[in-house]
Design goal:
Structural class: mainly beta
Helix content: under 10%
Radius of gyration: 20 Å
Shape: globular
Order of helices and strands: HHEEEEEEEEEEEEEEEEEEEEEEEEEHEH
Oligomer: single chain
Distance between the termini: 52 Å
Strand order of the largest sheet: 1-2-3-4
Strand content: 35-45%
Largest sheet: 4 strands, antiparallel
Number of helices: 4
């Protein structure tokens, strides 16, 4: 048994213990001190409060998650109010909270999804959730975090026409196992979590009871996988469409049986390999926010589909600069679309774009409501830049 395998096995139970939602957050984790800001997610409560989550420390074994709120539609933000830092093993290896997002369910509860793994990725990881039943109150109360399954969930669930909740989850491939910076990736024994190998890929978890319980349905694997970061939408005929990230851009798969079986992935866009955001708008049209380039993470652009993903049109450029990535967002009741994303990460910032469906259709600001590049969270380096 080699060293990384030993670390994973001897500390496996630690990654199954519910982490604490730490508050108040120690100042060492504040973005102006930590100097690292990586996009996670944004959500709006029924009362109009915004919650923003992001990753601190790094995109690696030391990653933690933070949460702040805004009561003026993102113009100003609280200091970080909650922290997820799963801590260390007895022999000094950090447990990361590397992947996750925030989401308001149909009842108005705020969900904070996050992963827990020994190091960057121990071959199993785990999707966790903490739920707040009163997110609009001055003192929100959170339930104890609970584990849904293995893997990680970067994107929001979709509420299906059946009333079921569909949460896309990725169980990463073995090549991405990395626990300690002293060792190379995938330097583990083949026996480590070998029983999970048939389940690796872009999976779907489904809840039939408003999130109390979750069941694993089917999955699909990309030919050239890269973290998956999958999202699921439902067509009017009940067919599910799952989009996923691979090494060359975005691929899609379809399910006609509620997510139990999936067609092979096929290429949708050859673009920067990075997270994207898609959702169904109140009009019935689909929105896709992705990079409109084949190489660098630049030219973050919004597109529309009126035929449920069969074709796309429009193209509203949100940010043309290099080093931007990981959009997430929501639709405001007044029709505005809010998209947050990060720029540079190390010494970087999290930014906001605001626009309407009509702006995407036209490809420019026809509503008079478009906002671009509004800073939300900034590292110390960004704050000091002229």
């Amino acid at each position: 048994m080699n060293e990384q395998t030993r670390i994973c096995l001897e500390n496996a139970d630690l990654a199954l213990r519910p982490p604490e939602l730490i508050t108040p957050v120690p100042r060492e984790y504040y973005p102006e001190i930590d100097d690292y800001t990586m996009s996670s997610g944004i959500a709006r409560t029924p009362g109009g409060r915004f919650y923003l989550s992001w990753f601190g420390r790094d995109d690696g074994p030391d990653t933690v998650m933070l949460l702040a709120r805004s009561d003026d539609e993102g113009k100003s933000w609280s200091e970080p109010e909650y922290l997820i830092d799963p801590g260390f093993t007895p022999d000094g290896h950090h447990l990361s909270a590397l992947v996750g997002t925030v989401w308001c369910d149909p009842a108005g509860r705020l969900w904070w999804f996050f992963s827990v793994s020994i190091g960057y990725y121990d071959g199993r990881a785990g999707v966790w959730a903490a739920v707040c039943g009163n997110p609009d109150d001055e003192h929100p109360a959170w339930g104890k975090p609970f584990r849904l399954w293995h893997g990680c969930a970067l994107n929001k669930p979709t509420v299906l026409s059946t009333g079921e909740w569909a949460l896309p989850v990725s169980l990463w491939r073995r090549e991405q196992i990395w626990v300690d910076r002293r060792f190379p990736w995938n330097d583990v024994d083949p026996s480590l979590y070998a029983e999970l190998d048939p389940l690796r890929g872009a999976n779907l978890l489904v809840s039939t009871d408003n999130g109390r319980n979750w069941e694993l349905r089917g999955r699909q694997r990309s030919v050239d996988p890269c973290f998956d970061e999958n999202i699921c939408l439902e067509r009017r005929n009940g067919t599910l469409v799952m989009y996923a990230r691979d090494q060359h851009g975005i691929v899609s798969s379809h399910s006609a049986d509620g997510g139990w079986s999936w067609t092979p992935f096929r290429r949708e866009w050859r673009t920067a390999s990075a997270r994207f955001f898609t959702t169904r708008l109140p009009s019935g049209n689909w929105l896709m926010v992705r990079h409109d380039t084949a190489g660098e993470r630049s030219h973050l652009t919004a597109f529309l589909s009126s035929d449920e993903g069969k074709s796309w049109r429009g193209g509203l450029l949100l940010d043309e600069r290099d080093g931007i990535s990981y959009p997430d967002g929501f639709v405001h009741p007044d029709g505005r679309i809010f998209i947050q994303y990060d720029r540079l990460r190390a010494h970087g910032e999290i930014l906001l774009a605001v626009f309407t469906e009509a702006d995407v259709e036209a490809g420019y600001d026809v509503s008079g409501k478009v906002e671009r590049k509004r800073p939300l969270i900034q590292s110390a380096t960004q704050r000091n830049r002229k």
